[in-house]
Fold these 2 entries.
Entry 1:
Amino acid sequence: MHLQFYGAAGEVTGSCHILTVRGRTLLLDCGLIQGGDQPDIRNRQPFPFDAAAIDAVVLSHAHIDHCGRLPLLRKRGFRGPIYATPACRDLARILLADSAFMAEREAERYRRRQAEHGNRQARGFPDPLFTRVDADETIQQFKPVAYGHATEILPGVTLTCRDAGHILGSASVWLQLEEEGIRSRIVFSGDVGQYDSPILRDPEGNGAADVVVMESTYGNRRHRERSDTLREFGEILRAARAGGGNVLIPAFAVGRSQEVLYELASHFDDWRVGDWQVFLDSPMAIEASEIYWKHPELYDAEASVARRDAGRMPALPNLKLCRSAEESMAINLLRGGAIIVAGSGMCSGGRIVHHLKHNITKRECDLIFTGFQAVGTLGRAIVDGREHVRIHGEKFKVNARIHTLGGFSAHGDQEDLLRWHAGVGGKPHTYLVHGETEGASGLSEALRARGIQADVAKPAQKVDLTSCGRR
Ligand SMILES: [Zn+2]
């Protein structure tokens, strides 16, 4: 029995770990590498295993850095089951289809440039990493597993998914392994959410393990208090209403869009949300929201009460869902009084870009960022305070008021991660993945201070699970 780290060791994307028990091979996640150095080339490299020989996959959650190479795994011969919660499968369907669509569009662009300018001008690949057909076929391989139900998924491998509180359907993966009379318990955290975050239940601990593989994205950080964040959100809206302009909120389609709408509904009277027209302007965020709203069994107590009282989710009578391009363009005619939630979260594409063109030069416009903005994105240029930004090749002066609301992260901070780890119990040897150097080493120090043997996982490092097991 052993475990090998393959992706997301020493970095934050491309999550993938390889577990071998009784000669069978199980993958934990199979994520896409995003950002960093030449991700297109790295994603296309051969896997360090034969895809056709993988017996099963367990998927922790639907974010593309955890599931984004599953269609590639299928293309290369994997035909086994993919275990995930039902909500995870529903969200993976949307996210993989979107990822495939973008890859198809990129490849199409490449071929066009190549035809016009020859090989030297064209950067990228003539074929997409995978197509929408590949993505759709991959979804057929999913086998839903409910939280808390122990399921034998391979000889000697019993899986229990527990809520990780990160996005809807996210799980920590608890595995009981048995080989030649030796038993070993291993827990893979997946991505761990914040405690007391809206809509979702808290990350669930409670058990014991011999080995823990744990994310460490914000292992050295402390998030801002949510109550401060919400107070600031309310103040921005009150001032914005007096200013008379529109409010733009770039948001990721899965998670953040639903959280923002939920908070607007929860503070409907307090923030005078009824004075606004609220738009969710993103077909993908609308699809993701419908999945959030149709899984009330996964809500925390507060969201369950809110849904019961309102009889629906979210309780926003003035919310308009904009599916068509015409509906989206109609918003451009509004000079004020609109709260527009649209993707992409970093303004690197999507409908938010059009709204920025119509609003960013206006002093009465408020622009609220609720998430991380990566270097090189339009969102980053704006939060960095650039006086002018380029949108679709055109120069725009930034006159809008820019706000960054901390505290909305889908990832727990150091305190949350330590709390989750304490819930696992049994003083397990802990390997930290899914973090850059500072996050992983910050968390390993904090765990060691609590008497836990904690190491930062190295790429391709192998962990012997037999020696840490028991008879
Ligand atoms: Zn995630």
Entry 2:
Amino acid sequence: MENIKHVFFDLDNTLWDYRRNANITLVKLYEEFQVEEKYGFTFKEFYPFYYESNEQLWADYRDGKVTKDELRARRFPEAFAEMGLPNFEHALEFERRFVDEVTTSNYVVEGAEEVLEYLKDKYTLHILSNGFEEVTHSKINGSIVKDYVQTITTAEGAGAPKPEPLAFQTSLDKAQAKAEESVYIGDDWIADMIGATRMGMHAIFFNPLNENHMWIEEVPVIEKLVELKEYL
Ligand SMILES: [Mg+2]
């Protein structure tokens, strides 16, 4: 890609390993609240219900169908209800503790450090995340990501989630970057790729789980972060 000066990254599951870090915290809370002992469901049985509830609510948040507060009020109650525990008394406590503690693990995605080291001298690096303001800063400050990025923008701070133009424009303004001199890297086709290309930014789709996705000719697809070196 030519004439690129700025590289913008999504955070969750692009640089910061949300799946892994969330899993560590969930296992801990599940044991602490003795869910298996009291109700007979193993963590392995619980996890898919949480995953589905979390993914769906984040997609709804991205699409403007639920607010941050609704997402937080519904994520665990709905996961437990779907599993067959509609009256699980610790569901909201789970949410509060989860958000407080998820950033105590700060694993980054495989290849993140290598690729950030490679990119940092060639470009100015930035974060644009759909996450909440406070949690996003904790994730960055608790991980190696803080050593590489110049600006951080969240959906909450911008007042709109990706793919809305306001999220990208806020991030570009903060970075003092032009869209055509910028590339966006993320793992959500709609929020990240549709959002970035509609702004006139370049885009690279990170698809580590090799999931089905749409396709646009000018958007390269990578499955490992180190493949970014082929394009940048
Ligand atoms: Mg992501």
